Amino acid sequence: MLNLIKNNRLLVKNISYLAFFQIANYILPILVFPYLIKIVGIDKFGIVSIVQAVILYLNVLIEYGFNFSATKYISRNRDNKKIVNQTISSVLTLKLVLFAVVLIFFSLFVYTIPFLKINSFLYITGYLILFGMAIFPIWLFQGIEKLKHITIANFVGKLIAIALIFLIIKSPNDYIYILLIYATGSIVTGLLGLVFIKFYGFSFGRISFKDLKYHIQSGYSIFISSLGINLYRNLNILLVGFFTSNAITGIYSVAEKLLKSIQMMVNPITQAIFPNASKRIDETSKEEGKKYIQKLIKYLFRLLLLIYIISLLLSPLASQFFFKKHNELFFIIFFILSPVIIFGGLNYILGVVGLINFGKDKLFTRSIFAGALINTIIGLIGGYLFGVYGISFALLFAEITVFLMLNKYFKSI
Predict the structure, then answer these.
(1) pLDDT average, residue stretch 225-253
(2) Which residue from 172, 255, 343, 358 has the highest number of Cβ atoms inside 10 Å of its Cβ?
(3) Cα 379 from Cα 233, distance rounded (Å)
(4) Is the pLDDT assigned to residue 400 strictly greater than 90?
C-alpha cells in the first residue's frame, strides 16, 4: 500500500483528513458509550440503539446513492466550475426533497403505530440527524479531493454533541434527549459544510430538470445497492430487539458499533482511493485498472488481517471499558462478528472501487442483495432458534457471500 501512495501527496493528505473524519464519526461517539450505559442503563441504551438503526436505514432513502454517483461525476468534471456548481444545486435539492417526503410518511407511521408512538420523541428528534447529513456535501469535497474543511466541520459537530451528552444526560430519564443531541451536532456539521463550499470558489448553480433527471438515474443502481447493504448492516439490531431484550440489544449494539469503528480505520484509505481510481480507470486500459485494484486488494488484505488479530487480542479490554467488567455475551458476539473486518474491507474495494468504477453497478447490486437475502433468512431463523448468536452469524455469512460473488464478478470483467 505504501508503494502505491508514497508518490501521491494529495492522496496521502486526503487519507489523513478522512482518518480524522472517521475518528470523529465513529471513535469519538463510541467513547461516550460507557458514560451513557452507566447513566441511562443498558436497557434504555438498547432502545436508543433500535431507534437509531431505524433512522440510519431511512438515510439510505435520502442519500439515494449520491455520495458515490455525485462524487464520481464531480471527480470527472472537477475542472468545469459550471458543471460542479450545477451538480451542487441539483444534488442538494434532490436530497432535501427526499428528506421532506420521507419525513411526511415517517411521521404518519410514528404517530399511528402504537409501539412506535411510545418512543415518538426519540424517533422524530432522531430523524433530524438526517437533515444534517442531507445538507453535508461530502460528495463534493471527495470529488475534488479537498477534504480539509469538511473534516473540520465534522469534528466540530461531533465535539459539540459529545459536550452536550455530558452536560444534559444526568439521569435515566434523560435518554430521550440522546438523539436530539446527536441531531444538533449533525446539523452544525451540515451547515459548516455548506459554508465551506465558498472556500473553494464554488457556488449554487442553475437547476434544470435535465440535471435532476441525470443525477436520479446515475444514482439509482447505487441506491438499490445501498438498500441491500443496509438490509444487513442495520437490520440486525432490529432483529436482536425483536427476538431478545432491550438489554441484549444494547450489548449487541456496542459490539457491532465497535466493529464498525474498527472497520472505519481502513475507510480513509479506500474512500480517498475511490476518486483516484475512478480517474485512473478512465485514463488507462481495463487491464491496467484491474492490476491497480488487485494491488490494492493484496496490500489491504495484509492490513485488515493485522487489524483483525489486534482487535481480537484487545476485545477483553474493550469489554472492561464499556461494561466495567468482563461481559461474556459481548465477548462472544464480537468474536463471531470480527471476521467482518476483513470481508467488509475487501468487499468495498472489489465492489465500490472495482465494479462501480468499471461501470458494473448491476453486478455489485446483485452481490449485495444476495448478501442481504442470506442475512435476512439466517437472521430470522437463527434469531428464533439461537437468539443474538444466530443473528450475529447471519451478518458474518452475509459478508462472506458478498465477498465470494464480488470476487467472481471482478475476475470476469
Answers:
(1) 87
(2) 255
(3) 12
(4) yes
Q: How far apart are CA 364 and CA 366, in angstroms?
A: 5
CA distance linking residue 376 with residue 395, whole number of Å: 9
The domain of 164 spans 2-412
**Non-local CB neighbours of 233 within 8 Å, separated by 6+ positions:** none
* C-alpha grid cell, residue 71: 462524487
Q: Residue 359, Cβ neighbours under 10 Å: how many?
A: 11
- Of the pLDDT bands very low, low, confident and very high (cuts 50, 70, 90), residue 45 is very high
The pTM of the full predicted model, rounded to 2 decimals, is 0.82
Residue 141: which of 62, 206, 204, 194 has the closest Cα?
194
Amino acid symbol at 91: V
Q: Give the pLDDT score at 4.
A: 47
